[in-house]
Amino acid sequence: MRANLGDVKIRNLDRARLIQFGRDRAKQGAGAVTLGIDFTFIRTLMVDAAAIHGITLSTEPVLLARTALKRLGLIGKGQERDRRPGAEAAAKPVAAKPAMTQTMENYRSSPPCCRAQRAARLKNLLRTQHSTFTRDVDQASL
Fold first, then answer.
1. What pLDDT is stored for residue 97 in this prediction?
2. How many CA atoms does the CB half-sphere of 99 hold within 13 Å?
3. Which of 4, 46, 102, 111 has the most neighbouring CB atoms within 10 Å?
């Protein structure tokens, strides 16, 4: 943001300049959610400048630019993603972990993706052991 708007004075941020900023960011590869975050950040800076430093300025250009970029499809909601590990990730062995402290071994201190992978591996292991156990029982009963 600093590279694109760093040299522009806050009073000179008009609707057209902000729309151009949004288009440039989209060309650089910023997604719809990222652009929305950028515009929220800009508006927050302007509101804080007015509230804390007493600068008289309007945040209306930011709201108008945001609306225009929404209509252009450059600002929007993110897509829902499924972050559960697939069968390949569940079957993949986990690299040996370095020695960790007691708190790091706490179940809730690990990221959710790691917990999901552990749960998938455990489910796979239990399924394998169950099938082995039932096969052994079936053979013993013959």
1. 55
2. 0
3. 46
Cα separations (Å) of 14 from 1, 19, 41, 59, 65? 16, 9, 16, 9, 8
Domain that holds residue 132: 87-141
Residue at which a domain ends, from 20, 46, 71: 71
Indicate whether 110 and 63 sit together in one domain. Answer: no
Total count of domains within the chain: 2
Locate tokens 């252009």: which residue?
72
Q: For the segment 72-109, what is each residue's pLDDT rounded down to a tens digit?
A: 999 988 777 777 767 777 667 666 555 544 444 555 56
Q: 65 and 98 share a domain?
A: no
Residue that terminates a domain, selected from 71, 102, 129: 71
